[in-house]
Write a structure and sequence with these properties.
homodimer; alpha/beta; six-stranded mixed beta sheet; 9 helices; 14 strands; 36% helix
């Protein structure tokens, strides 16, 4: 058993999601080097498989401790790191880090519960508070983190405050694989005229479950359209309508995969809103560094 | 080859859907007798398999002609019966019947196209116009036909006018089989307190894709609820909100599976609307008779 880890000598940061994981070596200077990227998300690690997988990560940069974020801390991951209730500052995440080994910490997720209003995030918290620690997200403002479950977050006094998840990415993927729209949604999505028509519809109308069927009807009746881009625009426009109503006025900081933040930026532009875009991987590394600094 | 069919001697009415089919013998008196019910929907009939299947149906009541409704007339069915554009009266359906054999007719579907507003139905048209022919749906009023793709129809001057489909049934089934909610939606749906809470939410708020995620969050955070009934209520309440905006004021005639029309009647009651319920099978037989009378 090694002694307490020395985070000042650099560390291994791992963003370990449901379907993928990615690891970087973060030098004392803050410079990050790619170490690993593969499809071994938590759903693919066999029961009892974490001991070997952790050793494999340790071997990528021997002697350095591990900072683990994302679904690795869920009940389907290695060790569960219970949710920190919002409002949650970076210090609260650090205080609630799970330490399943002397050289490893797991970042907890954040929950919000107010009567029947319930929400959870796991993975986005390090990115949002890391971006705030680096001055890229204001102490009071709005963040949108697109993805499988898009998060709309009110940042209040430097803390993650109330937030709301929208199932946009999951629904788009599901509709593309099952049911009557699957044949129409297999193409690539582009921020083209049909995407904008869908987004405008989603921003202005509250009839998503009807408008989705019209994609099928237009196809059957010979009306040409780029169905995949229209459907993406419709779901994202609906998402942005719901999100803006939740976060209120002001610019929106978009954090996430660059192809997704670009589509959301376009929908926000159609809604008359300013936005900034930040790559989610960069934000994760900012969060990992901000947490490691508080451990040194 | 037999001569022209004599519909006055009775006929075989077949409601042939995507996943199931059902056949009745309809006597000259109008009395209907069950002949067959099985899972041989059009998706399960092999290419070239219709010749044998039609002979099997003919053998159930030899010498009587066949009236076929539903997806049997789609591009995945036996012979395609092109959509009749709305507004469509019963006479228009009769005039556009497809006659692929001397003893068989296929009822066409109805389409509505106005700019980008596109919609189609296939199977509901015979039920709605049959109910109207029997005096169970007024010449000017609103019909709601719940199902995989719920239809909201403005009946105008005894014709199917503009209509709108909502993907409620398909989405509920998809969410119950795939993705993060599947474990929560496997139970039976009841018109209980949680159903009503979901329906009230769907009627009043336009945030379905966010509220669906909250079902998962409440479960993770230990808030008890009958998730399947809440989700059903949420989707149906959303459907009714969209549908009522489309059809406008007045009572709504519900036609469909009794378990579904009961749930929609409850959501309509919460929306302050009166409704009547009619079993879809009874409506289909009314439509089949009304069409056969015009062939005699």
């Amino acid at each position: 058993m090694a002694g307490m880890a020395d985070w000042r000598q650099g560390f291994i940061a791992v963003d370990w999601g449901t379907t993928n994981r990615r690891a970087w070596g973060v030098a004392p200077t803050g410079e990050a080097v790619d170490l690993l990227e593969d499809g071994l998300g938590v759903l693919k690690v066999a029961p009892g498989g974490y001991t070997g997988e952790l050793d494999r990560l340790r071997a990528l940069w021997p002697g350095r401790p591990l900072l683990l974020g994302g679904m690795i801390g869920s009940n389907r991951g290695w060790v569960e790191a219970p949710y920190v209730p919002a409002p949650a500052r970076l210090e609260a995440l650090v205080g609630a880090l799970k330490r399943p080994a002397s050289d490893a910490v797991i970042v907890p997720g954040v929950s919000w519960l107010e009567g029947r209003h319930a929400d959870v995030m796991r993975g986005e918290e390090a990115q949002i508070l890391g971006a705030h620690a680096a001055g890229l997200v204001t102490a009071d403002g709005s963040v949108c983190h697109p993805g499988t479950h898009c998060k709309w977050v009110r940042v209040q006094g430097g803390a993650i405050g109330p937030f709301r998840s929208v199932m946009t990415g999951e629904l788009f993927a599901m509709l593309g694989r099952h049911g009557i729209l699957q044949d129409r949604l297999s193409g690539a999505v582009a921020a083209n005229e049909d995407f904008r028509a869908g987004a405008e519809h989603g921003l202005r109308h509250a009839d998503l479950t009807a408008e989705l069927f019209s994609i099928r009807a237009r196809f059957l009746l010979g009306v040409e359209e780029d169905s995949a881009s229209f459907a993406s625009g419709l779901l994202i426009g609906t998402d942005v309508r719901i999100g803006l109503e939740f976060v209120g006025a002001g610019p929106v900081a978009l954090i996430g995969r660059p192809d997704l933040t670009a589509l959301y930026a376009e929908a926000l532009r159609l809604a008359g809103r300013e936005s900034t875009e930040l790559d989610g991987e960069r934000a994760f590394l900012l969060g990992a560094r901000a947490i490691a600094e508080r451990l040194s």
